[in-house]
Structure formats: structure tokens, C-alpha cells
Amino acid sequence: MAEEEVSKLEKHLMLLRQEYVKLQKKLAETEKRCTLLAAQANKENSSESFISRLLTIVADLYEQEQYSDLKIKVGGRHISAHKFVLAARSDSWSLANLSSTEELDLSGEPLTHQGHKIDSTRTPGRKLCVSS
């Protein structure tokens, strides 16, 4: 009888541990989403958060050669770009696909498509002007 009781309690304890681990993971995910939303929603109040500073640094990399690991040829000019930004902003360009690429040549596409592709990788509010 006592062995059955111990067995039941051990099973119950194991279930409680599993539930605890699930809740800890969910809490970590929720905190991550909350931080991201705070950085997006109110830049003034969250300007010191890691995500907000990271987004600002990435936005400041626009057309900067420093840390650039990729050139994009568009309309006769070369734009300094960053593989991690392309990978983060687009499903079509992953780090694995870009690992051996040093230059993306978009000059064969219509000018309107080039600008749209590049604009979609930049931060909102920054547009690329490409003249033919």
C-alpha cells in the first residue's frame, strides 16, 4: 500500500516538474516578445534596451562599407550591404545561401523590382532611390 502511494506521488512530482519546465520556457518566450514589442512601440522609453540599440545600429549600417560583407549591384551602382540584414529581413536570402556570395547582381531586373527588393530589407521609412 505504501509503495503504491509513493509511486503515485513520484508520478505526480514528475508531472509537476514537466509542467514547471514548460511554464519556464513560455515565460522566457513571453519576456522576449514583450521586450521586442516595447522596442517597437515606444523608442523613447526603451532606447536603452538591447533590442532597441541593436535596431538602431543595424539601421545606421545602411550603405556603410564598415562591416559590409556584400555588394548589391543595382542600376549601375554598388550598394554596401550586410548578409545578416538580408537574411533577417527576407525568406529568400538565408545566411546559408549567401555564405559564398560576395555580390548580388540585380541589374538584370526591372528598376521597380530592384528598388522594392532592396527597400524590403531596409528599415521602414528609409527608401532607396535608384535612377537609370
Indicate the topology.
Blueprint: H1 2-41, H2 50-60, E1 70-74, E2 77-81, H3 83-89, H4 95-98, E3 103-105, H5 111-119
Parallel strand pairs: 1-3
Antiparallel strand pairs: 1-2
Total domain units: 2
Q: CATH superfamily of the largest domain, called what?
A: Potassium Channel Kv1.1, Chain A
What is the ordering of alpha helices and beta strands? HHEEHHEH
* Spatial extent as radius of gyration: 24 Å
Architecture of the largest domain, according to CATH? 2-Layer Sandwich
Number of separate strands: 3
Structural class: mainly alpha
Give the biggest sheet: 3 strands, mixed
Structure at a glance:
The protein is mostly helical and 132 residues long. It contains five helices and three strands; from the N terminus they run ααββααβα. It folds into two domains: 2-57; 62-119, 2-Layer Sandwich (Potassium Channel Kv1.1, Chain A), CATH 3.30.710.10.
